[in-house]
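quick one: glutamine bound model?
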Amino acid sequence: MSSSETLGPPWTILKILRWTTDFLGERGCDSPRVDAEILLGHALDLPRIQLYAQFDRPLIESELSAYRQMIKRRAAGEPVAYILGERGFWNITLKTDARALIPRPDTETLVEAALKLLPAPDADQELRLADIGTGTGAIALALAAERPDLRVAATDISAETLGLAKENAELLDLSDRVSFFQGDLLQALPADWHALDMLVSNPPYIGESEREELMRDVRDFEPAAALFSGEDGLDILRRLIPASLDVLKPGAYLLLEIGYRQGAAVTGLLEDAGFKDIDILPDLGGRDRVARARRP
Ligand code: GLN
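yep, here:
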């Protein structure tokens, strides 16, 4: 124990973790210990659990300076996924940077629902799904990885963001079944993608009025265009929901990620557009997260 009682050189794994946990906490980080461990594991190329087995291991100068660089960025509020350059999502790992929203565990609720509702594989027919506003490509690529019979169109309004999604498709070796189209919502889809077996989207749904409620890390680092959608957050859904009827096959599902306070409003939009079998599904925290509906 004695070697870890005082802070300062020589820095061991335990001492530096204690120091950075305090430092990040003072800088307003809300998960300082976990973040310190993840970043140190990355700097040392060790699985996090190994840090615990090697608490008294001293750090050499090159390890310290790599770690210091990362801690500086985190202390300024930059999210861990941007510092590491990757984030795990469902069954895949995605490259992440400031071009796109960081994939969230909440969005796995939508992936899970999509897998449940997709028609069974049919040897004679490939299924067609579109992911509108694909960001990193998270939903499109997770679904394509799970279902080899699926062909996916992934769209985004930002060419820069779509560049990141394409890089992810290449890294995951899914480029042959996932096509990318740039444009505004459904206008991005070419005519041969107008009879879909499923349409999914995690669009921007935060209201401008909620801007001040957001965590600094999100507000200052993630792309605003991926977060906000008008005063109440529903502007994009007001356009996307009615338009999606034109590109779904009869009986095909529409799945949308929504804000936890938007269940009733989105149900109303789906009813007004003429959708049937409307349901709001909860995320792991039990809050409204996904709207599900079917074209009649
Ligand atoms: N579809 C992407 C995701 O789920 C991006 C969502 C967004 O930018 N609003 O991560």
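The two ends are 68 Å apart (CA to CA).
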